[in-house]
Write a structure and sequence with these properties.
By secondary structure, the chain is α/β, with parallel strands linked by helices. It is 26% helix and 13% strand. The protein contains 8 helices and 10 strands. The strands form 2 sheets. Strands 4, 5, 6, 7, 8, 9 and 10 form a 7-stranded parallel sheet that branches. A 3-stranded antiparallel sheet has the order 1-2-3. The two termini are 31 Å apart.
C-alpha cells in the first residue's frame, strides 16, 4: 500500500525519543509539518545539558533512530512542543536562557508522551527489531577547515532571510526540504538552486518516528518528497541526500534512500535552534562544538525562525573569521 499525503492523523505530534550516543542521550523530537501553514517544528534534543551538539566530531548525531510515542491521532499535530514541555526521563531541560515553553508553536495541548529510550537501539546500534543505519554521512565533502551548513524543514517564511545571509557571506548550504513545503513554495526552492545551494529530501510530511512506519509508507515518504522537490525546482536538480525526520535513520530506510540515489545525511552539531533556546545559546553551541569538516543542523522551516536568522548573522562572520570555508556534505 502506498501512503498518500496523510494529513491530519499523521500530522499528529509525534514524540521524540532518545538514543544513547556514547555517553549522552540524544532525544529527537522532530515535529512534522504536514501542511504548508503548519508551524511545525523539528526538535533534536540532546539530553546532556551542555551538549547541544548531537555528537562530537565523530558524529553519532543523526544516527540511531529515536523511538517516539505515537500521539493520539488528531492531536494538534505538527507542532513539536518545546523541550521544556516534553519531560523526558533521559533528557534534561536545556540550560539555555530563553524559555522554549513560550514558544508559540509549542502547542500547549499537544499530547506528548515520551517513551524512554529503547534499550536496544539506544546503546547498541543494530539492536532491537530495526537495524541502525550504518552509512550516515556526517562530514563535509572536502574536509579540512570546511563546514557544511544544513537547513531543515523548509522552505518556509524564513528561507529568504537565510538565503540573503548566505549570499552576503558567500556561503553555500544544503536545504533538507519537506515535500509538502516545497510544493507550496516552489519559488524558494528555485532560488535555493539558482544561488548555488543544494537540496536534500526530508520526506513528504516529516513523519515521526519514521522507523515505525511500514516499509511502503517509508518508501512513499522518501520517494514522493524527492519528486515534489524536483517538480518545485522546475528542472532536474540532483538530489543526492535525504535526511530522516529527527535523524531516525535505520538500515531499512537507508536502503530505500539509496535505491533512490540518495545517501543518508546526518550532522555533527545541533544547536537546537528549533526550540528557540535564545540567539546566544544557538551561537555558542555552534562555536563550541564545530570542528573542521563538521555538519551543522539548523532550520529554515518549522515555525518562527527569527532566532535562527539572528544567530546566523553572528555565526557566518565568525566562521569566516575562524578560517572556515563553506562546503557541501559528503555525497
Ligand atoms: Zn526535520
Amino acid at each position: 500500500m502506498v501512503k498518500s499525503r496523510i494529513p491530519a492523523p499523521r500530522r499528529s505530534l509525534l514524540l521524540g525519543a532518545s538514543a544513547l550516543l556514547g555517553t549522552s542521550a540524544l532525544l529527537v523530537a522532530c515535529g512534522a509539518q504536514g501542511s504548508p501553514s503548519a508551524l511545525g517544528d523539528a526538535a533534536h534534543r540532546t539530553a546532556s545539558p551542555s551538549a547541544s551538539t548531537s555528537a562530537g566530531p565523530s558524529g553519532a548525531a543523526g544516527g540511531d533512530p529515536s523511538v517516539a510515542a505515537r500521539p493520539t491521532p488528531g492531536g494538534d499535530a505538527e507542532t513539536t512542543a518545546a523541550p521544556t514541555r516534553t519531560p523526558s526521563p533521559s533528557a534534561s531541560s536545556s540550560p539555555t536562557p530563553a524559555a522554549p515553553s513560550s514558544s508559540p508553536y509549542a502547542s500547549p495541548s499537544a499530547p506528548r508522551t515520551t517513551v524512554p529510550a529503547q534499550p536496544g537501539p539506544s546503546g547498541t546500534p543494530g539492536g532491537a527489531s530495526h537495524a541502525s543505519a550504518t552509512n550516515v554521512l556526517r562530514h563535509t565533502a572536502s574536509g579540512g577547515r570546511t563546514v557544511a551548513l544544513t537547513f531543515d524543514d523548509g522552505p518556509g517564511p524564513a528561507t529568504g532571510q537565510v538565503l540573503d545571509l548566505l549570499a552576503q557571506y558567500g556561503a553555500k548550504a544544503t536545504f533538507c526540504e519537506i515535500g509538502d513545503n516545497a510544493k507550496t513554495r516552489p519559488a524558494a526552492v528555485q532560488r535555493i538552486l539558482a544561488e548555488g545551494h543544494r537540496l536534500c529530501d526530508h520526506t513528504v510530511d516529516h513523519p515521526q518516528p519514521m522507523h515505525t512506519q511500514t516499509h511502503e509508507q517509508q518508501v512513499a515518504e522518501i520517494r514522493d518528497a524527492k519528486a515534489d522537490i524536483e517538480r518545485a525546482a522546475g528542472g532536474s536538480p540532483t538530489i543526492t541526500w535525504w535526511r530522516a525526520p529527527g535523524g531516525d535513520f535505520t538500515a531499512e530506510n537507508e536502503r530505500i534512500g539509496a535505491d533512490l540515489g540518495m545517501k543518508s545525511l546526518g550532522w555533527t552539531v545541533d544547536p537546537r535552534d528549533w526550540s528557540r533556546p535564545g540567539v546566544q545559546a544557538i551561537v555558542s553551541t555552534v562555536q563550541q562544538n564545530l570542528r573542521p569538516g563538521g555538519v551543522v543542523l539548523m532550520h529554515d522551516g518549522g515555525g518562527d525562525r527569527s532566532q535562527t536568522v539572528a544567530a546566523l548573522k553572528q555565526l557566518l562572520p565568525w566562521m569566516v573569521a575562524q578560517g572556515y570555508t563553506f562546503d557541501f556534505p559528503q555525497s
